[in-house]
Amino acid sequence: GAEILFRHRATRLIQDPSNGRVVGVEVEAGDKKSDLRKLNFKATKGVIIGSGGYGRNKEMIREWAPHMVTCVPKMPISHMGDGLKMALQLGAATKDIGVATAGSWPVCVETHSRCIWALDWGGIMINADGKRFFKESSDEGCYGRMTEAGMRQPGGVYWVVFDHWV
Questions:
Q1: What pLDDT sits at residue 143?
Q2: What is the pLDDT of residues 4-49, one digit of tens each?
Q3: In sequence order, what are the beta bridge partners of 15?
Q4: Do 64 and 97 form a contact (C-beta atoms < 8 A)?
Q5: d(CA 144, CA 98)
Q6: Is the pLDDT of residue 166 over 60?
Q7: Is the dihedral of CA 42, 48, 54, 60 positive or negative?
Q8: How many other β-carbons are positioned within 10 Å of the β-carbon of residue 87?
Q9: Using only C-alpha atoms, what is the Rg of the chain?
Q10: What gap in Å lies between CA 10 and CA 28, rounded to an integer?
Q11: Residue 154 is inside which H or E element, if any?
């Protein structure tokens, strides 16, 4: 039952000054910079930030995950950290924020197509020295942690090795 509005970019979260609770959002609406108008939307129950990550924002990557700055970004171009910036302005927590970059998963160096799927089929990750550097089936085995470990390898280069594609 929610109305979806296109060409509306959230720019600021609105707080209740009496208790600090987020009660709405300010947006810019329109197709062109010259036609933009500011609108405020009041929340009835709360505000959910669903704006994606910051994997296309090099400045934020340099700040929060500098080891990931040379990743090949594989997330949508809209992942500029807008929602995160708004939340940070209000004091949002930043624990593990560097992992949020990890839409930059392992990619084929020639085609830039993703190859993280090979890990689902028993593939392992090795670095330029031929050393396995991450236990892919561990509780830490989400793509964010794996990609982060890979980018920490010499030159940010590693391989996903597997014996069979199903």
A1: 66
A2: 888 898 999 999 999 999 999 999 998 888 889 999 999 988 888 8
A3: 22
A4: yes
A5: 9
A6: no
A7: positive
A8: 18
A9: 20
A10: 6
A11: none
> Rounded distance, CA 145 to CA 116, Å?
12
Amino acid code (one letter) for 136: E
How far is C-alpha 105 from the chain's CA centre?
A: 11
Q: Residue 53 is which amino acid?
A: G
The pTM of the full predicted model, rounded to 2 decimals, is 0.64
The residues, ordered by sequence, that sit 6+ positions from 106 with a Cβ below 8 Å of its Cβ are 114, 115, 116, 125, 146, 147, 150, 158, 160
DSSP 43-111: -SS--------STT-HHHHHHH-GGGTTS---S-TT-S-HHHHHHHHTT---TTGGGGGTT---B-TTT
Instruction: Report the distance separating Cα 55 and Cα 74, nearest Å.
Output: 8
Go through the chain and tell me how many residues it has: 166
